[in-house]
């Protein structure tokens, strides 16, 4: 028996804007009158480390998505998509930004970053569909690379049980007014990428 | 008017405090508790409550107790290990009692997401004889924060609210209502028998504390957070967030299981006994310590000696945090059903590790580089609690115990017979929190050590809260800016020097003098946190690598995330903040400021 309408895991690197995505989704769900909960990473792990956020729409239980239970995995960085791939349900969808952020272990030369196909292949084996896009490039097209997370939010919008109107309305509550137009453009580009 | 908002657990707690008319909130930052006070600061502009970042948790609790004794509802916030610092006040406040309600919010961190241990604060509440409310989600945390004041006033005792990381840092749709008037009565009523813990007063107060336990238990038995649903002959008792995991599993498995959810301590003995009389087998599910399980064992002797009690022994781990998967398998095992195999993700092994690290341009890295260069490999480097603990790979973090312990451990290492150089380090906020007494002790007892205060002028790790060295209060008001140099001298340090760690030569020379100094030396390495500097608009020109690079990798070993290595040459990426330290350590002078 399903215990949630839609379970998602949002992964990335500290500073990429993982929490903003979950905040927008959560606010939109509240507007839609649906129970919603989530769990996020603060503190030490945020300093350039891996960050994972759980968000559950239509759920009255714990804020944590079960392993193998995520309907959607949104990854703002390809390596982080693979790191949390075991959260995906076999029927789940992975939305992946293909632009790597090299960890200090790679820049210092003590580890290697695998080529993108080697990351995406095992990811494909974990779920039903992988949608990979250069969200950073799309965000640059919209006006600023910082809006990469909102590009991914636009892509995510198609896979969650919330209307686009509500998500954009929630987005306008979260981003500063002077960046709203750029973010709306980023959202539209992300959405178009998965249509 | 009530509205629903998507709130962080800590923000929900802050709302609960406001809706209960809190008059004063004090705390010391610590993950996962910090956002309670930050939320109150954000919401306080049109309100009149007193909100402060205190110097440490003991101070915060005592300030809150004073306000409570003066008729203001008061709350104090801290992380679990902060209660160790505040324990002296905490234990005796249970005897002396409160004026207006006093709530101790102590956020636990099972799995040590951002902590040095995972102690279970429910034990502290039990130890002190103080009621403890253990929320399972943000909504419940908010209701409990408000209820805690009533409970505190009814029984004349501080009350603990104990969220865990997965409650404090969860978000959920929470109903919020209007504020109560902020209760600040402003009258301290003298009453030595209840405010002066002389032995003659303490003895009867201890008897009183013990006597009120039964009444508190009775009052909490019917608290809405203790819920019993008797169904089949197999039962589950779960506390806090474990209750949510258990409910989800019971719903998913659709099994006929009796369920008791516990959210308040002292434990509801009657509900537990009813459960035990009804079932033949019961599984107790709780994070960390077997607080509930031990009581269940005791109550079963009378209620139902034949009941089979399952829990920490082989079913529920006593360390780390629980999750749906662990709880599901424990329940399945109890029911004799198939357990799920842990999902494997073998491909993860191809990924490079991504540990948290010091930021590009962080001055701590520069200070540690200079320290290590002067004191060498054999020296002993006691360190402390803060961002700089992440520099453990630089070889300058040999110990990390608790707030302020760097200086005292360094002293003990010296007195224990160590003859190598000893150079310890701690941040400005940590020094002001728990390092000052250690420095005084080192001076008084003639410890020949060097103390390095990594002064980035903020409490960085927990989210950049101000401290007495910053000249600003929690609410952004200007206040006295305490001089760390003057403090160090007043506490008895013989040599005190201040350096800018971005100036490598100057920093190395200063460490050299400290190393040779025949007494207690203090180096204050001052440079604002790069994150904070960037937010306040400070910009420096970035650096770049020229053709003169010989590929020696000395800059790479420095470990700044802005330095990469590509085709036998160093390369500086977009993370560069322009600190210039790599240029200073490059032996080929191949790193220069980008010309504009």
Major protein interface: A-B, 58 and 59 residues
Give the mean pLDDT of chain B: 95
The string of secondary-structure elements of chain A, in order, is: EHEEEHEHHEHHHH
CATH fold title of the largest domain in chain B: Rossmann fold
CATH class category label of the largest domain in chain B: Alpha Beta
Rg of chain A (C-alpha, Å): 16 Å
Taken as a percent bin, the fraction of beta residues of chain A is 15-25%
User: Pairing-aware structural class of the strands and helices of chain B?
Assistant: alpha/beta
Q: How many distinct folded domains of chain A?
A: 1
CATH topology title of chain A: Pyruvate-ferredoxin Oxidoreductase, domain 3
What is the total number of structural domains of chain B? 4
Low-confidence segments of chain B, given as residue ranges, are: none
Number of helices of chain A: 8
Derived structural class of chain A: alpha/beta
Please provide a written account of the structure:
The complex is a heterodimer of chains A (195) and B (596). With 195 residues, chain A is α/β, with parallel strands linked by helices. Chain A has a single domain, classed as Pyruvate-ferredoxin Oxidoreductase, domain 3 (3-Layer(aba) Sandwich), CATH 3.40.920. Chain A has eight helices and six strands. Chain A has helices at residues 18-31, 78-83, 104-107, 116-126, 135-142, 148-157, 164-174, 180-193; strands spanning 6-13, 36-39, 50-57, 70-75, 88-97, 129-133. Chain A has a six-stranded mixed beta sheet, sandwiched between helices. In chain A, strand 4 (70-75), helix 2 (78-83) and strand 5 (88-97) form a beta-alpha-beta unit. Chain A is globular, with a radius of gyration of 16 Å. With 596 residues, chain B is of the alpha/beta class. In chain B, the strands form six sheets. In chain B, strands 3-2-4-5-7-6-12 form a seven-stranded mixed beta sheet, with helices on both faces. A five-stranded mixed beta sheet of chain B has the order 9-11-10-13-14, sandwiched between helices. Chain B has a four-stranded parallel beta sheet with strand order 15-16-18-17, with helices on both faces. In chain B, helix 4 (80-96) links the parallel strand 4 and strand 5 (102-107). Strand 2 (36-39) of chain A pairs antiparallel with strand 8 (170-176) of chain B, so a sheet runs across the interface.
């Amino acid at each position: 028996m399903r215990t949630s309408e839609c379970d998602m895991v949002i992964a990335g690197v500290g500073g990429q804007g993982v929490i903003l995505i979950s905040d927008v989704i959560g606010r939109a769900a509240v507007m839609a009158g649906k129970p919603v909960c989530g769990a996020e990473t603060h503190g030490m792990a945020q300093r350039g480390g891996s960050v994972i956020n759980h968000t559950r729409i239509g759920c009255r239980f714990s804020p944590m998505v079960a392993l193998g239970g995520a309907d959607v995995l949104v990854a703002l960085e390809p390596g982080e998509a693979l790191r949390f791939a075991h959260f995906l349900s076999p029927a789940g969808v992975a939305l992946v930004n293909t632009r790597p952020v090299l960890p200090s272990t790679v820049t210092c030369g003590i580890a290697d970053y695998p080529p993108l196909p080697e990351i995406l292949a095992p990811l494909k084996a974990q779920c039903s569909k992988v949608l990979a896009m250069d969200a950073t490039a799309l965000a640059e097209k919209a006006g600023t690379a910082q809006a990469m997370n909102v590009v991914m939010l636009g892509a995510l919008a198609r896979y969650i049980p919330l209307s686009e109107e509500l998500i954009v309305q929630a987005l306008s509550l979260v981003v500063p007014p002077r960046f709203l137009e750029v973010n709306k453009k980023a959202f539209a580009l992300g959405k178009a990428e998965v249509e | 008017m009530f509205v629903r908002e998507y709130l962080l657990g800590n923000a929900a707690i802050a709302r609960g405090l406001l809706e209960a008319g809190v008059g004063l909130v004090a705390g010391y930052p610590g993950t996962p508790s910090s956002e309670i006070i930050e939320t109150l600061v954000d919401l306080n502009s049109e309100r009149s409550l007193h909100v402060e970042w205190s110097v440490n948790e003991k101070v915060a609790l005592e300030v809150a107790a004073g306000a409570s004794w003066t008729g203001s509802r008061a709350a104090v916030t801290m992380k679990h290990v902060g209660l160790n610092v505040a324990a002296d006040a905490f234990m005796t406040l249970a005897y002396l009692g409160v004026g207006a309600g006093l709530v101790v919010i102590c956020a636990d961190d099972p799995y040590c997401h951002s902590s040095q241990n995972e102690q279970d604060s429910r034990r502290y509440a039990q130890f002190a004889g103080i009621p403890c409310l253990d929320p399972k989600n943000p909504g419940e945390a908010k209701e409990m924060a408000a209820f805690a004041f009533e409970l505190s006033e009814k029984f004349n005792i501080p009350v603990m609210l104990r969220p865990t990381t997965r409650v404090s840092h969860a978000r959920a749709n929470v109903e919020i209502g209007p504020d109560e008037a902020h209760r600040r009565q402003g009258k301290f009523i003298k009453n030595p028998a209840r405010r002066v813990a002389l032995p003659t007063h303490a003895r009867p107060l201890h008897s009183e504390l013990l006597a009120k336990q039964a009444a508190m238990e009775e009052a909490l038995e019917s608290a809405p957070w203790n819920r019993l649903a008797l169904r089949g002959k197999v039962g589950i008792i779960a506390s806090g967030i474990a209750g949510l995991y258990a409910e989800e599993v019971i719903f998913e498995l659709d099994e006929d299981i009796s369920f008791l959810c516990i959210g308040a301590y002292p434990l509801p003995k009657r509900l537990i006994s009813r459960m035990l009389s009804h079932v033949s087998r019961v599984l107790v599910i709780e994070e960390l310590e077997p607080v509930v399980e031990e009581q269940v064992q005791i109550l079963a002797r009378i209620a139902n000696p034949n009941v089979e009690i399952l829990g920490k022994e082989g079913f529920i781990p006593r360390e780390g945090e629980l999750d749906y998967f662990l709880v599901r398998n424990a329940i399945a095992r109890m029911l004799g059903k198939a357990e799920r195999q842990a999902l494997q993700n073998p491909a993860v092994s191809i990924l490079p590790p991504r540990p948290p690290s010091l930021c590009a341009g962080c001055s701590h890295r520069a200070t540690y580089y200079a320290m290590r260069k002067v004191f060498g490999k054999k020296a002993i480097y006691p360190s402390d609690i803060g961002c700089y603990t992440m520099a453990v790979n630089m070889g300058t973090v040999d110990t990390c115990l608790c707030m302020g312990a760097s200086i005292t451990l360094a002293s003990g290492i010296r007195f224990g017979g160590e003859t190598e150089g000893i150079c310890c380090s701690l941040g400005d906020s940590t020094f002001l929190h728990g390092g000052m007494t250690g420095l005084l002790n080192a001076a008084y007892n003639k410890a020949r050590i060097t103390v390095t205060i990594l002064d980035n002028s903020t409490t960085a790790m927990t989210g950049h809260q101000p401290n007495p060295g910053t000249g600003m209060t929690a609410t952004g008001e200007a206040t006295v800016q305490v001089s760390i140099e003057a403090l160090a001298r007043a506490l008895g340090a013989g040599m005190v020097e201040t350096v800018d760690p971005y100036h490598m030569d100057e920093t190395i020379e200063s460490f050299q003098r400290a190393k040779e100094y025949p007494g207690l030396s203090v180096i204050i390495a001052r440079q604002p946190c790069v994150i904070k500097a960037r937010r306040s608009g400070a910009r420096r020109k970035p650096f770049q690598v020229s053709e003169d690079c010989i590929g020696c990798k000395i800059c790479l070993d420095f470990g700044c995330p802005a330095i990469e290595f590509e085709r036998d040459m160093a390369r500086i990426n977009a993370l560069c903040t322009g600190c210039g330290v790599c240029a200073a350590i490059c032996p080929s002078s191949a790193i220069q400021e980008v010309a504009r």
